[in-house]
Amino acid sequence: MVWTAFQVVAPPFARATSPEETVRTTADKALAVLADKSLSNRQKTDRLAELLDSVSDFETTSKLVLARGWKDFSDSQRKEFQQLLRDYLIARYRARVDDYAGQTVQILSGRDEARGDYTVHTKVEGGGHPALAVDYRLRKDPTGAWRVIDVIGEDISMVSNLRSQFQSLLSRGGPEKLIQTLRDKIAKGDAAADSGKSSL
Hints:
- The chain contains six helices and five strands, in the order αααααβββββα.
- It is an alpha+beta fold.
- It has one domain: Nuclear Transport Factor 2, Chain: A (Roll).
- A five-stranded antiparallel sheet has the order 1-2-3-4-5.
- A hairpin with a 5-residue loop joins strand 3 and strand 4.
- It starts with a helix and ends in a 12-residue tail after the last helix.
- Mean pLDDT is 86; it is low at 1-8.
């Protein structure tokens, strides 16, 4: 339930000079898109996807999700998995876009993490829903830009959640089994149904 709730208002990111500014700037843009009644669900999703692409580090997120399994993927499989992971995450929140009801994002604090990462703590509130704690873990890319690598809602890590879901598929059929499952779910429009599930 937490995953379903926070994915609608968990903002993608835009370039900025600090992690907090990154979250604040892009949260404002994302919430403006969600509140724009002139846009269709598809248009909102497309604009949010553009924001997500602009600063997300899907290679690092993919490595974190696959953990030791990363070494079992060929170069071409790694590239495809990164694209499928991106498409899967977008599909998971597409069905929830219309649930937005005037929430706001408040920046609370931040802290340094290992490997030069940084976590920004936020609170999502308003719209008649209980306040929700959402943290964003960011890492600098080679150009010095901050990019998101994980989202933690109410202490549930997106990376850890996906890792636990994908691990059984990797154990049963290796990289190709996981890749084919993601292909099928995205093609069939089933990804959104996984929002509240603990496994694929």
